[in-house]
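Appendix B, Record 12. Input sequence as logged:
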Amino acid sequence: MHLAHPGLKDPEYYVPGLPRDWVAHRYGIDPAQVAKLGSAENPLGPSPRAVGAVHEAAGRLHLYPSWTGEPLREALATTYGGTPERYILGAGETEVIACIIRAFAEPGGKVQMPRPCFPIYHLFAEAEGRRPVMVDTDDMALDVDAYIAAVDVDTRIVFVTNPHSPSGTWLGESDVRRVVEAAPHALVVLDEAYVHYSRTPGYLHLAHEYPNLIVLRTFSKAFGLAGLRIGFGVGDRAIIDPLLAVKPTWNMGQLQIAGGVAALDDTEHVERTAALISEQRARVAERIAGLDRFRMVPGSRANFFLVEILDPSTDSTAVFEGLLERGVIVKDGSVSFRGLGHRYLRVDVNLQEHMDRLVDALDDLP
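Logged structural output:
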């Protein structure tokens, strides 16, 4: 018996990066020697200010939080501009994405996204009975002209990720504006989950200019709070108010709110993280350039990059498994990203010792 709606008859699930302990146990490797490069986590750990605030907030666990997470909405407005009412909070950016799809696309409605893209876009759309419309990228970067041409009069939501996932490629502000202005009848969702690694302020300010734009960000990456689950969106009240109606009522707990408020002030931690990623991204590019069988896809402005497999005698799954045996966790593009195929791996930028382990392992593969 199948009681769920048709979109959930044969559900597809998100494929997270493998845990370090699982790989260590399976292959008999010291966990400390495993390079975890498949989850885009912060190599410097969580924001120290957030950790302190979470400990302090533990004494309030018996109290219901503000249902809108008001202290954090107020802190976001102070940091990024606008009023608190223009912000929506979620248990990670992924929850905000789920609410957007539910609120702004009717069953069967078109939700446009690049191919490949962050899988949550199409997984949530399909699970909600919406229709993903996937537009192929051009050499792993968004072809803005083709993307605009794909927008139909009945398109409901248009996703843009900047930096893009899985390639890390970057769109200039004029191109982002072109997409937003080409879809005045649709909600454009600008996902800036990895923006801190671009070493730019990003384009959050555009949310205060365009009534059909919501900009999303997360505390999971540069702030190092992936385990706390905090994300947010900023946009016009006409966008935020419906999202408040569909989100789970108390979706942000006391610890999330306190940790997020404190993390916003921890600019030192964010800057140290972004500087480390920038330095190691350039360094690993030089090392991979010395390999014959692999190529780093250029242009990443994120804390990850794509490795293209040039050797025709192997593929992404074989290389992925070979790296696991050598204590290196990455993402197999053929499993993790629809439309990426069997020639790519997505790899995190991390500490130098882990990047060296990656390149040495690639060089050691038979």
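Residues 48-265 form a domain with the Aspartate Aminotransferase; domain 2 fold (CATH 3.40.640.10).
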